[in-house]
Amino acid sequence: MFKRVLIANRGEIALRIIYALKELGIESVVVYSEADENSLPVMMADYAVKIGPPNPINSYLNIKNILAAAEITNADAIHPGYGFLAENAEFAEMCRDHGITFIGPPPEAIRAMGDKVRAKKLMKEAGVPVVPGTDEPIEDVDEAFRIAKEIGFPVILKAAAGGGGRGMRLVRDEKQFRTAFQAARAEAEAAFKDGRIYIEKYLEDPRHIEIQILGDQHGNLIHLGERECSLQRRHQKIMEEALSPALDEEKRKWLGEVAVRGARAIGYHSAGTMEFLMDRDGNIYFIEMNTRVQVEHPVTEMITGVDIIKQMILIAQGEKLNMKQEDIEFRGHAIEARITAEDPERNFTPTAGKIEFLHKPGGPGVRVDSHIYAGYTIPPYYDSMIAKLIVWDENRDKAIRRLRRALEEFYIEGPGIKTIIPLHLKILENERFLKGDLSTHLLDEILGTFEEV
Questions:
Q1: What sign has the CA pseudo-torsion 435, 439, 440, 446?
Q2: DSSP 100
Q3: Closest Cα to residue 89, out of 113, 65, 69, 66?
């Protein structure tokens, strides 16, 4: 059993991990920057170590300082949360070299899935359906142009070494291709220090569906069902739900088995997510694997009763999964709305400042994962997400009504602070959303309506 675990993260995920550790009887160490000195994770953890100034490069991405903090506090393990160093294979290796357990998958799996071209090739070999496109990164623009013509426009250019929309370009016709290819390469090089690009067939108006995986170090692998993550802005999710209204039982069973097969092919253990696109004809294709816990993991917890963070910790300790696939039951429907400190009426400009009044919604089936409090100052240095509102009910229609009620009761007020709560309420009025007719372009349609109001 671990005695003490260091959390190499901040905000709501750091607090979420502290809760899990407390319930497991494990002491927590949180590292923090100067900007987070008065944060809830610092107040709630058993130990707190300042590791640098506000800039993440000098704090939450400073591997040397984080490992030093682990050593001086005698931490047995490090949980990276999501973002920052969570999918950094070098960090996972350095933890191992220092005799500290990395609470996540082995670095070999992180590295394999971090290279999108290699990941696609490995999944194809494992019998997982992939989007038509190149198996190897392309560097020469003329060769890339020839391949794009063979695949057929529209195509999408993606950075081989990254995600989050950086290094990504949609090319609808031949005239745009060369300029878009050079721009994608330059952006990928700047973001990931790796300018390699691969090409995929662009799927018009697809759904984004992902499968939650759990695997131990003894070869046991299961899935916890799917999440619908189609509501996105600039490739960033803002609302997720479980289960997807697009899948029936037969397709759900098949996709879960496909995801487990893909994870098994790379010797995966810990929590992870296999991500897929589903076209309008119902065809499903693998796009990437996230080798960490996802922001939206609570919706899966709500419908399965499985504590994913606890499972990650127990798996890292070497314990066997205490459940089998046939033990997993899906009950009801859950939806998560990410609450960000952004102004949707001003092109989603991030806002910061002191919260003077805060009221979090409550009642049956309502969960708020957040690190904010009245008197807390939202810093301008990090991701703008300040809370996650998760609701559960017996079915999707009831969950939507509960989410609307909870959003209307969520007050975050302070000078200059704006949130996207009004946008979430607008989403819940959209006819396509209400019918479950989702796609990765639906939010563009909703935003057009929102901006006219």
A1: negative
A2: -
A3: 113
C-alpha 442/C-alpha 289 separation (Å) is 23
Contact (CB, 8 A) for 218 and 209? no
280 given a catalytic annotation: no
Domain containing 167 equals: 132-201
Q: Which one of the listed residues 10, 111, 227, 292 is annotated catalytic?
A: 292
Residue 354 lies in a domain: yes
Strands 353-354 and 357-359: unpaired
Q: Do residue 65 and residue 211 come from a single domain?
A: no
Instruction: Give yes or no for a contact between 245 and 399, defined as CB atoms under 8 angstroms apart.
Output: no
**Same-domain pairing of 223 and 367:** yes
Burial class (CB in 10 A: 0-12, 13-18, 19+), 1: exposed
Per residue in 356-396, pLDDT (tens digit) is 999 999 999 999 999 999 999 999 999 999 999 999 999 99
Q: Report how far residue 75's alpha carbon sits from residue 176's, in angstroms, rounded to the nearest whole number.
A: 52
Angle subtended at Cα 292 by Cα 287 and Cα 296, rounded to the nearest 5 degrees = 80
Residues 274, 163: Cα–Cα separation, whole Å:
14
pTM assigned to the model = 0.91
The number of distinct structural domains making up the chain is 3
pLDDT in tens, 25-51: 999 999 999 999 999 999 999 999 999
Q: How confident is the model at residue 450 (pLDDT cuts 50, 70, 90)?
A: low
Residue length of the chain: 453
pLDDT in tens, 272-305: 999 999 999 999 999 999 999 999 999 999 999 9
Cα separation, 332 vs 50, in Å, equals: 42
Reduced to 3 states (helix: H, G, I; strand: E, B; else coil), residue 135 is coil
Radius of gyration of the chain (CA): 21
The tokens for 201 are 């067939």
CA distances from 190 to 159, 162, 167, 184 (A): 11, 11, 9, 10
Residue 114 lies in a domain: no
